[in-house]
Amino acid sequence: MRKMRLDRLLARFGISRKEAAALVKAGRAVVNGRPASDPAMQLDLDSDAVTVNGQSVRTDEHFHIMVDKPAGILTATEDGRGQTVIDLLPREWRGVGLGPVGRLDKDTTGLVLLTTDGQLAHRLISPRWEQDKRYVARVEGRVGEREAARMAEGIPLKDFTCKPAMLTVLEAGDDESLCEVTVTEGKYHQVKRMFGALAHPVLSLRRLSVAGIGLDPALGSGGWRELTAEERAHLYTITELEE
Ligand code: URA
């Protein structure tokens, strides 16, 4: 049985202890159809139904969200220096304990997964589980078969040799090329460093999928949504965890 105090549950959604006490006193926090008598009351999260001001309150153990990160936003939970992916969400999502699954550079756009489940996040980014990450990169110069073959072999960098990556050229021009690249690692600046080693500096980078979860094209830059039940089940299955 998953237990939690009523005021702690409400705190997840940005309701302070003082506000929770006031809601209880006013009879506006209702558990299983009856006004709660104590903000410290223990809830059974698996079976209790909670409403505040007539609105039902989510008692899910974990939350999972996808965000289409715009350029200029940091992949962090808080940062005094700039806006983070958490700041893209409405206020009620900010206290539930969401953290990013891996990081994108400040200027990289696209899919960032956020979850409250630390174990799931750990398995999704752990090199041991080798989850695919797919990007579309606009790079300088003409890219072709030769570069695809070198990526497939594994590019040697100064401090390590990359695992084989799959490169598909979408458009090749003398000045710029557009490529799709799939990597199974997530080292710092990895895709930029791989293209840099091939003398094709990255002009822009966008992540399209992580671990088989594709960025929802309907979101648009800065948009977000919760993962669907199928997407959640997929992530727990591939990481061999219980949902
Ligand atoms: N590789 C990079 O170089 N940057 C990112 O943001 C993600 C992968």
Q: Within the CATH hierarchy, at the fold level, what is the topology of the largest domain? A: Alpha-Beta Plaits
End-to-end distance: 15 Å
Strand content range? 25-35%
Number of helices: 6
* Structure classification: alpha+beta
How many domain units? Answer: 3
Number of strands: 15
The overall average pLDDT, rounded, is: 95
Order of helices and strands: EHHEEEEEEEEHEHEEHEEEH
Bound small molecules, by name, code or SMILES, are:
uracil
Q: Biggest sheet, open or closed, and with what strands and sense?
A: 9 strands, mixed
User: So, the CATH homologous superfamily of the largest domain?
Assistant: Pseudouridine synthase I, catalytic domain, N-terminal subdomain
Shape verdict: elongated
Multimeric status of the protein:
single chain
Please give the share of residues in helix: 10-25%
What's the architecture of the largest domain in CATH terms? Answer: 2-Layer Sandwich
CATH class group of the largest domain: Alpha Beta
User: Could you tell me the radius of gyration in angstroms?
Assistant: 22 Å
Uncertain spans: none
